[in-house]
Design goal:
Elements lengths: L1 H32 L13 E8 L2 E5 L4 H7 L1 H14 L4 E2 L10 E8 L2 E5 L2 H9 L3 H5 L3 H4 E2 L12 E8 L2 E5 L4 H7 L1 H4 L12 E3 L2
Antiparallel strand pairs: 1-2, 1-9, 3-6, 4-5, 7-8
């Protein structure tokens, strides 16, 4: 009887753990699935259902009218669209947007629902005083950012200190070994690099 009781108790505990873990996974999944982005046209909360392709990435809007305004004048909304790409982690910051130098973890400024890093408090101060922060930060996109979000060789997260030049553009990798693999056969990986993609700046993504 004691053995049977022990088995039943153990089974109940295991079942409880499975249910608890499943519930925790569901909650974790809900956290990851939460979408938050700022409409580049209105400045309101963007929706996942209203979007366009821009620079090969998804740009989201608050309504069905804002994409029309964006399409008519992409230059006007370019900086704010890039700010949203930073919010949605579709671009990666690789250096100070002013100097191009390495980032100082303590020198950051909020930009919408994201934050922009700088090399020093001097650059941070200049950004903080700007009345048009997005335009100020993205004036020279390539100096501080890349369209890449993963290593073209391994597919892993980027280590922004692992970088090589290809046709005049920076290519970022996950480790010290991948640049060599890329250099041996760049044509094999070039399709995975958005900075080399030949796409229209704006295209419907409905």
């Amino acid at each position: 009887m004691r053995t049977a009781f022990s088995v039943l108790t153990l089974s109940a505990l295991v079942a409880g753990l499975v249910v608890t873990n499943a519930s925790a996974d569901k909650k974790e999944g809900s956290k990851k699935a939460k979408f938050a982005a700022t409409c580049p046209v209105s400045g309101g909360a963007a929706k996942e259902t209203s979007k366009l392709k821009y620079l090969g990435k998804n740009v989201y809007f608050c309504c069905n009218n804002c994409p029309k305004a964006f399409t008519k004048n992409t230059k006007k909304f370019d900086a704010k669209a890039k700010a949203q790409l930073l919010e949605t982690k579709q671009i990666t910051q690789v250096g100070c947007p002013l100097s191009g130098r390495a980032l100082n973890p303590g020198s950051t400024v909020a930009l919408g629902k994201a934050s922009v890093g700088f090399c020093c408090d001097n650059c941070k101060g200049k950004a903080a005083k700007s009345t048009e922060l997005a335009a100020f930060v993205f004036k020279d996109f390539d100096k501080g950012f890349t369209l890449q979000t993963s290593c073209p060789v391994s597919g892993k997260a980027l280590d922004i200190t692992k970088v090589a030049k290809h046709k005049g553009k920076n290519v970022y990798f996950c480790c010290g070994g991948c640049p060599g693999a890329f250099a041996k056969a760049p044509e094999k990986f070039i399709g995975k690099l958005p900075q080399f993609a030949k796409t229209d700046k704006k295209k419907s993504a409905k």
